[in-house]
Structures are given as structure tokens and as C-alpha cells.
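Posting this for the archive.
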Amino acid sequence: MSRIGKLPIPIPDTVKVEVAKHVVTVNGPKGTLTMAAHPVIDIQVKDRQVVCGRTSDEKFHKALHGLTRTLVANMVEGVTKGFERKLELVGVGYRAAIQGQNLSIALGYSHPIIYPVPPGIKIEVKDQTQLTVSGTDKQLVGAVAAKVRSFRPPEPYKGKGVKYAEERIRRKAGKAGAK
């Protein structure tokens, strides 16, 4: 039995979980999330808990068991608390601003980068150099934060670029002076 997969997921009072034909729908105060589970995984709601099971002990089915349980747990957490990633812009003249439904970022290129914010995601800009990407879907929050970071990843010599707030950049020494 999967160690993670066998753990039941407690359902808070404000959350409603429905399972119909391997489609899990989680409804909570922050929104609604839906996921289609693999037919091998059996998902049941019992006594304010979600329990995941599997039909066989094949290696692939064991992997799906733990994965499905974690995805459902993330859905429950997302509709109650939500998820967020913090980003920092490091560099002279690097700044960000929200313009309607778009994120405008100046990263030292000849033009500003305009990124349309996907539905279900909220981006807050604090003092032009700190961004907070938040939402209910953990995968989508991480993907949007990674996409914004990819516009100019931090470089190892001066540390300039877009980095996660908790990220530590390994610095390299520059070239030695010629004699």
C-alpha cells in the first residue's frame, strides 16, 4: 500500500467534495476545482474524509495512487487557503506593473514584456520589484510563476533577473584582471 495514498484527506466544514465517474469536484470558499482521476483509482468520500484506493498492485497503479491522493489534497487546500509564489526583480530599471488583465514587465530589453494573466490567477505588484502570484490551483500558480521567471532568469555573476523570493543565487567570480 502506498504510504501517502492510504492517508485519508480531512474535509473542512466549508468544503464540499463530490465524486462522479472518476471526476472529483471540490467546492470551497475560494472557488471550485475539478480533476479527472485515472479509472484504476477508486475515490470515495466517507465521514468528512476523502479516501483513495486502487484496484491492483502494479507499479504504475501504486504511483497513481499516491499522486491522486496528493492532487486531491492540494485541491482541498487550494479552495480553503489558496497558494502563492513570491517573485523578486533584481536589476537596475527592472520593474513590473499591472495594466488591466496584463502584467507589464521591464527587464532591460528594448521593449516591455506584456504577459496576459490567466483566469484563476491573481498577480499583485508591491513596490515595482516584488510580485505575488496567487490562486487556488497549485499547478497553475507554479506554472505562471515559472513563466514570469523565464522572461529573464537570474544570472550568476551579478544576480540580475527574476528570482523566487526564497531562491538563493549561487554567485560566480568574474574574470580575473589581466597582468
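The chain has two domains: 9-80, 83-164. The helical segments are 59-80, 138-150.
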